[in-house]
Amino acid sequence: MFHIFQYQPLRLITQNSLSSMCLKVMLSRPVAFAQIWKSWFSSHSLLGKKNIVLMGPPGAGKTTVGRIVGQKLDCPVIDIDDDVLETTWNMSVSEKLQDVGYEEFLEEEGKALLKFSASGSVISLSESNPMHAAGMQHVKKNGIVVYLDVPTTVIMSRLKSKEMDRIVGLSLGISLKDILQFRKQFYKRWFDVRVLCGGDIAAEVVAEKVLDAVKRYQDSELETFISTRSSSSGRSTEEDSHKLYFSDVVTQGLALDGGLFVPERGLPKFTAEEWQGLIEATYTERAQVILERCIHPADIPASKLAEIIETAYGENFSCSKIAPVRHLAGNQFLLELFHGPTASFKDFALQLMPHLFAYCIPRSCNYLILVATSGDTGSAVLDGFSRLHDTDKQRIALVNFFPEDGVSPIQKSQMIGCQTKNAWSVGVKSDFDFCQTAIKQIFTNSDFTGFLTVEYGTALAAANSINWARLLPQIVYHASAYLDLVHQGIISFGSPVDICIPTGNFGNMLAAFYAKMMGIPIRKCICASNENNILTDFIRTGVYDLRGRKLISTFSPAVDILKSSNLERYLHLIANEDGQLVTQLFNQLENQGHFQLRKDLLGKLQQDLVAGWCSEEDCLAAIHSVYSTTGYILDTHAAVAKVVADRLQDRTCPIIISSTAHYAKFAPAILRALRIAEINQNPLSQLHLLSSYSALPPIHWGLLETLKKTGNGDHQVCAADMSALMSHIETLIQNHFM
């Protein structure tokens, strides 16, 4: 039987009356009939037998928004307070609360919710319903729970002019702000989708956002991924056979055609009001909101994503702000990205990504993660995967390839010291570019990967920034830095900032550009290179030329890179997703050692990016100068960015410099910059010497702990040979999984 739901709650039109009505409308007003049918079909296809359940704090507008959504869908609207609780109790909610008290009220409210049943309706919960677990489980079984997330300051402002005798818990003498903060944990536990609601946003706009959020929740088909080397028709041969979703690209890492995965429809956009709603939020709250919009709940439900984010950032960072912004001098600010367990910006992705990976992979297969590092990634990925649950460690192992003589002594000590029973470091007698290229070639070697799958039941995956799950968390800290400047009163929202990032593999810079695309008002993206300045030359000329270049070992090894992998994603973007062009460019780079952008693409690039580079002497001089004037020690990479920022900024707006690692990781260079004559070669002694300076920031606790470890001094060393690397991989699989 077909039913049409009218706006009046629980009022139905039967099939017979529908037929009679339809006949009359069809004869007299065929256009009107089409509109009625379209309205019914829209409601039916969106809801079916499911309910839309609106949840949020008092003053969030649940009742008003619910009525508007009901009108738009032409379906029943039920307000739990008015239509269920007060009808059941034969008294007002405020009277019931005064009559039975706080604890018993919650229980009575939950019992009423357990007896309630509806389908195909819009339901507005009370503000305290989410505090009763059994009641919420009952409602959630047949509903899509939509969290109307309104900033606490906005709610408090709204409630000033209203009677608050219906707010559960307020009579206990607890402040309204504390009640609202306490309730958030329950809202976060139950929701399926979140709708950000700013200060002056109209209820009609919120209702539209609710409908959009529900449609997105029900249709994961819209959020697919393609390779940067997909054909101009939109999909590669691989992708034609089946669509790829977030969980697929996290697991697979690199596309089979050698390209990198990107969202087919691009990244989500946030409105200015939505960003402003996050100004008061903590870092983890910002991370959850941003990542929810980038990861479809069909891949990772919001509640699980929240759990993963809390695990990643809850206790593993030494600073409660996670990624604090510190004023350096003048209009320059430092984004400190080294407070994670291994003291570099890599921790932001690699405390999160292992848990995303473990959740997304099928339980029927073992996985070996391959990583190439120029320094910081190695210890970060080893530490991140070491924090997985033991059951996950049994089916996930990791091998980290690094240039044996191309990282700092402390970085090398970290990578060796962070090895565990399922994660190993292998030094390669070559540079980072060889390591990275070798991994890409292994992934596209179908004979080898197929052999590992058939013979050992093991698939390969990547944890470098070529993996999409590595890039997403980096977007968060660039957005958060801007919001922190607004929160501190340095700028008002909408005012521009410049950013300057020490850049090698282009992942960090790409994440900042993505933040800009999502609505953060970033003006200039400044790429800072060291003496391996191929990116600077490319941005200035449009010519990417490896011919005759040799990698130079510098004081800033994390950007000692000549082949910038994530540049491919950026070029795919500005080339309007022309995969054929991207394929042509990078095939030419691989085969001939160079390529040149068309003039129109170079123009687009130069609108987005500017670049400069820093010599070794200028790097050390910047460290000494900043310490002498401020007492703050920059690491070598931040010093590179500082030098370039000084040259390229126009001082008309703040500039945020990414401080990507703790200075103690590069102790010999820092001690040299501070003009220490004799430097002990023991890394632990170097750290103790630096700590005697009592400089800012203090010595990183994680580095000291890692270097104090004993018994983890061994690691394997491999020749710069593809066959040797593949042999190492097969041996490690045999030892761990067999």
TrEMBL record:
Modified positions (N6-(pyridoxal phosphate)lysine) in chain numbering: 346
InterPro entries per record: P-loop_NTPase, Ser/Thr_deHydtase_PyrdxlP-BS, Shikimate/glucono_kinase, Shikimate_kinase/TSH1, Thr_synth_N, Thr_synth_N_sf, Thr_synthase-like, TrpB-like_PALP_sf
Keywords: Amino-acid biosynthesis, Pyridoxal phosphate
Xref: PROSITE patterns: DEHYDRATASE_SER_THR
Pathway(s) the chain acts in: Amino-acid biosynthesis
GO biological process, one term: amino acid biosynthetic process
One CC-aspect GO term: cytoplasm
GO terms of molecular function: pyridoxal phosphate binding
Cofactor(s) the record lists: pyridoxal 5'-phosphate
SUPFAM superfamilies: P-loop containing nucleoside triphosphate hydrolases, Tryptophan synthase beta subunit-like PLP-dependent enzymes
Domain Threonine synthase N-terminal span(s) in chain numbering: 235-313
Domain of life per record: Eukaryota
Keyword Cytoplasm: no
A Pfam family it matches: SKI
Entry's family note: Belongs to the threonine synthase family.
Protein name: THNS1 protein
Source species: Gymnorhina tibicen (Australian magpie)
Species classification: Eukaryota, Metazoa, Chordata, Craniata, Vertebrata
Gene: Thnsl1
